[in-house]
Amino acid sequence: MSTAPASDRVRREPELLGQTVVVIGGSAGIGLETARRAHAEGAEVILTGRNADRLSAAAYEVGAVSTSAFDAADEDELARFFDRLPTPIDHVMLSGSGPYYAPLQETDFDEVRRDLDWHLLLPARVGIHAIGKVRPGGSLVFISGTGGRRRGAGLAFIGAGTAALPALVENLAVELAPIRVNLLAPGFVDTQLSASLLGDEIDVRRQQLRDTLPIGRVVGPEDVAALAVHLMANTAVTGATYDIDGGQKLV
Length: 251
Known about the structure:
By secondary structure, this protein is an alpha/beta fold. It has one domain (14-244): Rossmann fold. The chain has 9 helices and 7 strands; from the N terminus they run αβαβαβαβαβαβαααβ. It has helices spanning 6-10, 29-40, 52-62, 75-84, 109-130, 156-175, 192-198, 202-212, 221-233, and strands spanning 20-24, 44-49, 66-69, 89-94, 134-143, 180-186, 241-244. It has a 7-stranded parallel beta sheet with strand order 3-2-1-4-5-6-7, sandwiched between helices. α2 crosses α9 (221-233) and α4 (75-84) runs parallel beside α5 (109-130). The longest helix has 22 residues, at 109-130. The chain is globular and about 45 Å long.
């Protein structure tokens, strides 16, 4: 029978020791938490974001080795960023803005195009740029959501994008192999973005979720980050979509 202290029995090597993780949209929310988690697991982290000041603060907070301030939706800027990346990169995560909602008769179709470009076309562009930059067995992690699976006023285009992205990810996993490609689908996540969207209703929403979710609490960005890092580390997983909603779809 082992007499080793409990602390010795549970000690493990960091999951991403010596690896490099790029987080596009890493200055806040889920992206920032993923960068923090990846760094804690031994990775060197490269962050991007649109706001240079916020990006600089985030980089200091998580010990990022470098940053790049640009709009990832700009094709030329994205290409220049990947061209300048050192190789090999181990993992790339794409985080970013929330979805666009509007009743059909009030829809701003320019906003729809921007939203579909970010949530559907940008992952494909990242996949193209990953070729030759992300090592074999490395990974791409994208983010969708579960809200677009509901049906109702204002959900037409986010519903279409939500349905399309898992199919895109499955095909990218085949085309980009042996680079792995996976998708996170959070429900409500308690971030600054959620608070800004809900305004004065944020506390009501939080309490509603505490009262109804099977887990008895609100999902936070650190929960999503933990799953993102697991998908980077688990080399058997590709082409998969993982819901992380605290059981919201069950109720």
